[in-house]
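Handoff note, outgoing to incoming analyst
You'll be picking up this chain. Sequence as last confirmed:
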Amino acid sequence: MADSKFKRVLLKLSGESLAGPGGFGIDPERAEAVAARVKDILAMGIEVAIVIGAGNLWRGKQGLDHGMDRATADYMGMLATVMNAMALMDALERGGVFTRVQSAIEMRAVAEPYIRRRAIRHLEKGRVVIFGAGTGNPFFSTDTAAALRAVEVDAKVLIKATKVDGVYDADPQKDPTASKFDTLTYIDVLNRRLSVMDSTAISLCMDNNLPILVVNLWDPSALERALRGEKVGTLVSA
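Most recent structure output, in case you need it:
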């Protein structure tokens, strides 16, 4: 077992992490790749909770652009996150990892209802808990759901796992002169309007002194090194 700086973490994944080459849908091979990253964290003796988005299945903005009611669009997104949670659960369990999906919207045939104390007990028993359906309320993003669940289950860090190796002052895929930040304060993120997480999520982390670590999900060693305390990615804290 490798030494870890954190006992319990919440991993925030985008829905696109499960998508195939076209950026849409659920690719079982990508789900298995994400599951392998999660297993690496578990092997360090860390308790892992996960919140996953739904951008690979549904983007509410598309509905809003056509006049869809915002609450309806958001509920559709919440349902899509449960589909992603089930796909990731399946990939983890095929890899020998005990997993539970808890949904903020009750659908007992496919997921447990979200119960905080039960989620914590699952984590203590070494099970991965995947939180689906966001917060269960429209007008809140899965970023905010991740911050909320992390605080509720007493995670020691919220890991935003993305396709880039940290937070930049511009999009590094479009601007080759973009500069990477090693550390940021919550106020820096809010004032600079940096695209780490939405402002509600950042504020919730700031109010509860929950650090946010932004790392590249697809770097084979980034997560493990970051959790050992090495300077990897970008750390957002007080």
